[in-house]
Amino acid sequence: MAANTITLRSSDGEEFIVDELVAMESQTIRHVIEDTGAENGIPLTEVNSKILSKVIEYCKKHVDAERAAAACSASTSADEELEERNEDFDQDTLSRFIELKNWALKWELKRWDKDFIKVDITTLFDLVLVRNL
């Protein structure tokens, strides 16, 4: 199934074609899509291409992390995990293993978030200004 895409247009005219789920991470963009649709793209007149690319990078990482967590939870019932690993774990051990996998995914995302904001002060300021985008 092909994902729907949305075109986001920066203040300096650059167009970014992104997965709809990535675009919907932004509440502002979500409201535009829900209220008026996005057939002709969404102009973001207050955001230049440098910052918009960073926002998209952030949103994409978070969508990917949500997908990974959902896949981990959905596909790792105890029986499936036992078959997949071909190991002799009891249910309690396996449940703890699944919890640990989910914790590791969350920890990795938090670490990524910390690294993401290691930018120059101007970029950080611009990201703060568009955080509600």
Would you kindly provide a written description of the structure presented here, covering whatever features stand out?
The structure is a single chain. With 133 residues, this protein is mostly helical. The protein has one domain: Potassium Channel Kv1.1, Chain A. It contains 6 helices and 3 strands, in the order E-E-H-H-E-H-H-H-H. The protein has helices at residues 20-23, 27-36, 49-75, 78-85, 91-116, 121-129; strands at 5-9, 15-19, 42-43. Strands 2-1-3 form a 3-stranded mixed beta sheet. The mean pLDDT is 86. Belongs to the SKP1 family. Pathway: Protein modification; protein ubiquitination. Part of a SCF (SKP1-cullin-F-box) protein ligase complex. It holds the Pfam family Skp1_POZ.
Give a quick precis of the structure.
The protein has six helices and three strands. With 133 residues, it is mainly alpha-helical.
